[in-house]
Design a protein that fits this description.
It is a single chain. The protein has about 120 residues and is an all-alpha fold. The chain has three helices and no strands. It has helices at about 10-60, 70-80, 85-115. The longest helix is centred in the N-terminal third of the chain and has 48 residues, at about 10-60.
Length: about 120
């Protein structure tokens, strides 16, 4: 009998399940982070708008010609509708998709090699 004990080779199914679980955990973590970032951004925008409104209110000296409610509403709407730079988010999502595609391709190649080595693993 041999002195060496070889570790059992994991089945393609267990490897696939493990990789899928890791990917699912990573995606869930990233989605939670994105939601938290969006909420933080929205809260920051609200706080900034409130602060800007307070500053404008404090800085404006009382005159006989105060802005109308409609003018104030238009100014606030303009501030809120200014475009927010989202190019960073789309770039990071594109990079994430590329990484996931590469990992999927690696997994597919691993499964193909495993099937070629052990065709009895396929039970169709």
């Amino acid at each position: 009998m041999s002195e060496y004990v070889s570790d059992p080779v994991p089945s393609p199914e267990s490897v696939a399940n493990e990789v899928a679980t890791e990917e699912a955990n990573e995606v869930a973590t990233e989605e939670a982070t994105e939601v938290a970032n969006e909420e933080a951004t929205e809260e920051a925008n609200e706080v900034a708008t409130e602060e800007a409104t307070e500053e404008v209110t404090e800085e404006v000296e009382p005159t006989s010609e105060e802005p109308t409610t409609q003018e104030v509403v238009q100014n606030v709407q303009e501030i809120l509708t200014e475009s927010v730079d989202t190019s960073d988010e789309s770039t990071s999502l594109e990079e994430r998709v590329k990484v996931l595609e590469e990992r999927l391709e690696t997994l597919i190649n691993y499964i193909r090699r495993s099937i070629i080595r052990s065709p009895e693993l396929i039970s169709i």
